[in-house]
Amino acid sequence: MDEVIFNRKPGLRVVRGPDWEGQDEDCCEGHVGTVLETGGQFGCKTPDKYVTVIWDSGFKGCYRAGHKGAYDLRVLDNNQCGVFHLSTKCSGCQDRDIKGFRWKCAICPSVDLCTACYMSDKHDSIHVFTRYDTPESDGVRVPPRCNSENDKQLAMGIFKDALVTRGPDWGWQNQDGGAGQTGKVVNIIKWDRNYIGEVKVRWKSGSEWSYRLGPDGKVDLKCVVASTGGYYYKSHLPVVGKMKNDTNETPEAVTENYRQILRRSALSAELTSCDPSRFGVGYRVVRGPDWNCGNQDGGEGFVGTIAETLGQGFGKPPINFVNVIWDTGSMGVYRAGHEDKFDLRVFDIGVDGTKHESVMCDSCMMEDIRGIRWKCSQCKNANLCSQCYSDDRHDISHQFLRYDSPDPKKIFKVRKRCESQKVQVMGIFPGATVSRVREGKCDDDYAGNGNVGRVVSIADSGKSSFRTAVTVQWPSGSQMTIHSGHNGNIELKCVKAAPGGFYYRNHMPIFGKEPPPCAAQRERFKVGDQVKIAVDISQLKRLQQGHGGLPDNMNQHLDSVGKVSRINEEDDVVVKFGDSGPYTFNPAGLTKVKLKFPNDPFAPSNPKDGCSSRKMAKTSSHSNSSRGSSEMSTPRYQPQCKICLEQDACITFIPCGHFASCRYCASRLTNCAICRREITERQLTFIP
């Protein structure tokens, strides 16, 4: 059966779709209707790329199913069209030959769900599923249900306990007791061997009869009082008239790809830095700013390991998601940028071998700090490793810079520890009791199934992977060093967690989110600095979120030079552009404007060039009395505007005579940018 035609077949039960423009002719969002006719077929009245729908309320309308790229409807259920998956049993309700959509877990090989069980959150809601619309269709992956809570919608219409009356296709004489009589829906079952579209109604007379709701596009009833039909995840449903076929894999092949997530020892992580915007297998993580998955991690502070970074072609799972195995043994898929949501923070990046050469921790004396480096911004050469930083070594009232890698450009300022919230770390740390997982490769003589060992210490997996193994003592007394994150290889799970210190929640990198590239510039600005916007308007809009927003008139200041009036308590920079402002800026969006130029006699002299400076002063001393007039008549040639450093200079300031600005910048200055004298006149000057 052609999938596109099937996706518009009469009998489909539908709800509002992504491009819905109708009013409340369906009653309201969530109310269900039935496709009566699809356009583009011989003899039908419905236009091509449209479908005619009758809503359970009785209203009939025509809706777009691809016309000019617009889609008004989603398919809620297709089992009324005779779809069933032979010999596939639902793992939830145990119904054989799943009717309608088949939902296959992409992680557990034997789990299939019918639509009712899938939408009622049977099986683990953190697992990714693949939807199969028909037995022949390609699988379409959908995000984990735990990450789609805001996408849930209650279905309403002709369901059990709804009150109904005669509908448009009624042909059953007076079984209902006569026109206008109402009955109550007792059950919805199958119309014949293939169709689940029979509605059993008990009329006021006490008689019970069955009627069609979808089979062959026939609807015998309409709703008087709607009933609830459970919830559905809007974005998990197919769109009427549109097929999203992103893979040709069989359900078994999809599952096998996901099962490899737990066998990561064969897949190396190509990581050279700890930039948290680069997904890293083996990173140790904790819950992040957008976490909405309850206590799947064991509770705030519990640590997990990234076992697979999704969206990179390996089995083609969803983009901007990652798979995490928590120390408790549970596993889930979490957002790392999907819809601009970030569920995780990075706790430790030792797996990628990040080392800060020749930088020693001032507290524990660790040479070549491994992982994240913390540098005091107030004390010269004061550096801490992550452990000592979280243990409050050094003055906690001092502000620190976070170095995510040896790259000097990857520096990020964090708040003072005395003003920040601490969280205790829990998981596989010294003192924890652990057991092997199924995928572990430990010697059964030491760690057979069911044996519990005690973690003695945290170890390295080699010279380029730090803190990615643990030493465990088993009941036999023997000790083994076992992988715990190296290349995503997880061989242990926690039976009883142990504390592993603390971390400052908002000081840790957000996994999958690249911090502003110039965040370290915050400490460079001071009151009185001349600054300009350093990014384009789209970047500025992103940077300004949470930093004062983007004013409507900001476009006119993109090329202007402003003055820093103050630094607020959040380290944001407050700037005035002449008489306009003040405006609050994320410091990552600003850059200083340097006003010292080699040909400027009013600029401070270079101490390394004292002789030439003295010589210049001696040579020019005889003309000091006439400096103003000579400069005004013969302006000093400076080819570039000293403000924007982009346009040619064409304006001479009077009375000082400095030739220093383009027209645009000159119109916004009240004082000369070189000598600070007040400008009384601006003279357009052309250099031959």
Automatic annotation (TrEMBL):
Single GO MF annotation: ubiquitin-protein transferase activity
Annotated GO biological process: Notch signaling pathway; protein ubiquitination
Repeat is among the record's keywords: yes
Chain ranges of the MIB/HERC2 domain: 1-79, 150-227, 271-350, 420-498
Region (Disordered): 604-635
Cellular component GO terms, alphabetical: cytoplasm
SMART domains: RING (SM00184), ZnF_ZZ (SM00291)
Residue ranges of every copy of the ZZ-type domain listed in the record: 85-137, 356-408
UniProt keyword annotations, A-Z: ANK repeat, Cytoplasm, Metal-binding, Notch signaling pathway, Repeat, Transferase, Ubl conjugation pathway, Zinc, Zinc-finger
Compartment(s) where it occurs, according to its Swiss-Prot or TrEMBL record: Cytoplasm
Pathway listed: Protein modification; protein ubiquitination
Statement: the UniProt record of this protein carries the keyword Transferase: yes
Domain RING-type positions: 641-676
Compositional bias ranges of the Low complexity kind: 620-633
Pfam family of the protein (one): zf-C3HC4_3
SUPFAM superfamilies found in the cross-reference section: Mib/herc2 domain-like (SSF159034), RING/U-box (SSF57850)
Name this protein carries in UniProt: RING-type E3 ubiquitin transferase
Organism: Lymnaea stagnalis (Great pond snail)
